[in-house]
Amino acid sequence: MTADAGCVLAELQEAAASANRLLPMSLGSEGSCTLGGIVSTNAGGTSVLRYGMMRSLVLGLEVVLPDGTVLDQLGALRKDNTGYDVKQLFIGAEGTLGVVTAASLRLWPLPAAFATAMAAVPAPKDALALLGRLREALGDAVTTFELVPRIALEFVCRHVESARDPFERAHNWYVLTEVSLPQPDSDLGARFESALAAAIDDGVATDAVTATSEAQREALWRLRETIPEGQRHEGASLKHDVSVEPAALPRFIEEGRELIARLAPGARLIAYGHLGDGNLHFNVSAPAGAQDDALARAADAIGRAVHDLVARHRGSISAEHGIGQLKVGELARYEDPAALDLMHRIKQAIDPQGIMNPGKVLAERG
Amino acid sequence: MTADAGCVLAELQEAAASANRLLPMSLGSEGSCTLGGIVSTNAGGTSVLRYGMMRSLVLGLEVVLPDGTVLDQLGALRKDNTGYDVKQLFIGAEGTLGVVTAASLRLWPLPAAFATAMAAVPAPKDALALLGRLREALGDAVTTFELVPRIALEFVCRHVESARDPFERAHNWYVLTEVSLPQPDSDLGARFESALAAAIDDGVATDAVTATSEAQREALWRLRETIPEGQRHEGASLKHDVSVEPAALPRFIEEGRELIARLAPGARLIAYGHLGDGNLHFNVSAPAGAQDDALARAADAIGRAVHDLVARHRGSISAEHGIGQLKVGELARYEDPAALDLMHRIKQAIDPQGIMNPGKVLAERG
After folding, report:
1. Which pLDDT tens digit goes with each residue over A164-187?
2. What is the pLDDT of residue B184?
3. In chain A, which residues have their Cβ closer than 8 Å to the Cβ of B65?
4. Which residues share a beta bridge with B285?
5. Which of A42, A79, A281, A362 to mutate to test binding with chain B, by most B CBs within 10 Å of its CB?
6. How many C-beta neighbours within 10 Å does residue B121 have?
């Protein structure tokens, strides 16, 4: 599918669906974000586990370069090894090398069978083990695997209309997981449920609910998707978008929790998100009922400590949200100097006058 | 998996298999090609349809830059949007920007179920239709889909020891196709066979044989993998490695056949390969028994005409083999000038003295 950069993601998804195809990019902002934006930020979302980030969906690009030249690489070839793959440069460059004006996208078969569940697990390491089991049993059918801590579910149930806890008792952690297949498969739900049941038998999960209707499926997804809304009602917050190798996530969460407890006593950690990709939204809410701005005052110290922890785990301080303006200094601080130097050389080579989205991604060098 | 650049692909495949994982890169040269080489050439092969080219398997890279700096991007993060993804530059750059010294690779589950078949089809358009049907029925399980013309099968059966035609009568075209799943699935073979049987009923395929033992599977694969060997015994040849959008392939083959008949009367077209990726090895063998060097003398004119045809279809003149030395002039001729200019700017920015693999990919500019 080839589309202009101003097209809204939700409309592109609909256009693909009307041709019986899936555009597997799923984001909270899909009703407003545009194709140019999701290419330029190499967007992620809840389907990365199965389909990859935006980079893996882009077959071709049209880009206006800083000198006004149009780079026409809109062909939708799967294989092309003619010289450097220059279009890769503009994916995730946040508009600092050129303006993406159109893209050719890879589409996938529309799922014809799917099943959705929320599982309760004792701890993040069990969530990882559950992911391994589901993949063992169902392979690539595992499309979504999102970690949700108890506190996030509480925030959502407290503030989001019609949201309710699907379990009878409280659990420490939850996972929203979906499996899907492109061909009809009447067995998929049964295999999914039996893998979940085996995980419960073995103590990897403590409980699970599966959606038996589209309304139930939407209700489960809503619990995951409204976490930002729930958190907004709980006072001041800090947000970090980090990734480490998935196997390192449980330890990262524990070390991060200790760090927050030390730097912002009483503050509440909301670590949730794309467990299968090693990507967490490592957010912090002010202590319940806090009236002062202590959390805001601690923001810089907390940000620094969280990013130091990420660096110790050789992770990313911006897994899917990019650098923008806010993290220009953080990128300069944490990035490998050789990589940072390459980025500056590329910027200088393609936009020597620095007119493309100035002030974003890279700091000016004196 | 992280490995040094000198490791041989077959050894990496074995290492992955011993950890119950698949390194899905499958090439005729896998017994000798090294990791550094397949990264630097963005290798393709017979698993691209399902798993993508080398670029999609690289999670991290270590590269020595022209000034001796080591770029350490070996982390195996699935998501990392911190600035430009500089490692992408070195994948497929054929060593002209730096020397790849190690890589972290994405592994996949080892297939636990698979089925292999050779189908006979009337024409390339039927092969495409068969691919659509198999994907409809089996989704992503379709791992391999390789087009083989009758003449290639004849060459192989004539010259390769123990190779034999698996069909009772001759057919115009063949497809080697394999489906696989990461989890055991006793139904896979039956679903594959029923999709093939339906295709025969509807005239999309004329016949099909499925492998019922590992020996039969190997024999079918051997028919595909020894095409270059078979062709070698048939006298002088010309090779072109081209891609177009898959839907354009049938027309491309017909137009290419007319072109060869005009420029090299009696020469034999061997158009085979990765149909599902739109990538054909569009090879030409001298007329049977030819003793003169007419084909060699026509080589430049044929190459130019084939590449002109590719350009009219907005395809690639080097789908998986890269540019090297031989195609430096062809790249300069056919590449979009804006893209070519970007390549030169990148080369100048990273290797200003031109010391990395000089003479490859890009011509020196005066």
Report:
1. 999 999 999 999 999 998 888 888
2. 82
3. 338, 342
4. B237, B268
5. A79
6. 25
A chain contacts of residue B27, beta-carbon cutoff 8 Å: none
Do B79 and A321 make contact, defined as CB atoms within 8 angstroms? no
Best of B20, B62, B82 to substitute, by most chain A Cβ atoms within 10 angstroms, is B82
The dihedral through the CA atoms of B320, B326, B327, B330 has a sign that is: negative
Query: Could A79 and B48 be called an inter-chain contact, meaning their C-beta atoms sit closer than 8 Å?
Result: yes
Whether the Cβ atoms of residue A38 and residue A25 lie closer than 8 Å to each other: yes
Residue of B nearest to A246 (CA): B77
* pLDDT score of A262: 96
> In chain A, which residue's Cα lies nearest the Cα of B21?
A136
Kindly indicate whether the ipTM for this predicted assembly is greater than 0.95, answering yes or no: no
Give the CA distances from residue B219 to residues A54, B156, B223, in Å, rounded to whole numbers and listed in that order. Answer: 39, 12, 7
3-state secondary structure of A234: coil
Confidence class of residue A139 from pLDDT cuts 50, 70 and 90?
confident
Distance, CA of A286 to CA of A292 (rounded, Å) = 9
pLDDT at A317: 95
Residue carrying the six token digits 């196997």? A247
For residues A81-108, one letter each, b for 16 or more C-beta atoms within 10 angstroms of the residue's C-beta and e for the rest, the string is bbbbbbbbbbbbbbbbbbbbbbbbbbbb
- Beta strands at B173-181 and A113-121: parallel, antiparallel or unpaired: unpaired
Tell me if A183 and B109 make a contact (CB, 8 A cut-off). no
Q: In B, which residues are within 8 Å of A338 by CB distance? A: 65, 69-72
β-strands A58-64, A99-105: how paired? Answer: antiparallel
Q: Which of A27, A38, A39, A84 to mutate to test the interface with B (most CBs of B within 10 A)?
A: A84
Identify whether the C-beta of residue B343 lies closer than 8 Å to the C-beta of residue A86: yes
Which pLDDT score is estimated for B366?
Answer: 58
Q: Which residues contact A26 (CB under 8 A, 6 or more apart)?
A: A45, A46, A47
Per residue in A11-30, pLDDT tens? 999 999 999 999 999 988 99
- Amino acid letter, residue A292: D
The beta-strand segments (E) located in B80-161 are 99-105, 108-109, 113-121, 142-149
The position carrying tokens 């239709």 is B129
How far apart are the CA of B279 and the nearest CA of chain A, in angstroms?
Answer: 7
**What is the helix (H) or strand (E) element at residue B62, kind and residue range?**
strand B58-64
Inter-chain CB proximity A55 and B361 less than 8 Å: no
Tell me how close the Cα of A164 comes to any Cα of chain B, in angstroms. Answer: 31
User: Distances from the Cα of B30 to the Cαs of B19, B25, B45, B152, B273, in angstroms?
Assistant: 19, 9, 10, 22, 17
Which residues, 6+ apart, have CB-to-CB distance to B51 below 8 Å? B24, B25, B57, B108, B143
Q: Name the DSSP class of B324.
A: T
Q: Which residues of B touch A245 (CB under 8 A)?
A: 75-77
Contact A81 B245 (CB under 8 A): no
Give percent of chain B above pLDDT 90.
Answer: 91
Give the tokens for residue A164.
């309710």
CA atoms within 13 A on the CB side of A312: 11
**Option in B78, B81, B88 nearest A278 (CB):** B78
Contacts of A344 in chain B (CB under 8 A): none
Q: How far apart are CA A326 and CA A239, in angstroms?
A: 12
Which residue from A149, A118, A133, A148 is spatially nearest to A203, judged by alpha carbons?
A133
A339 inside 8 A of chain B by CB? yes
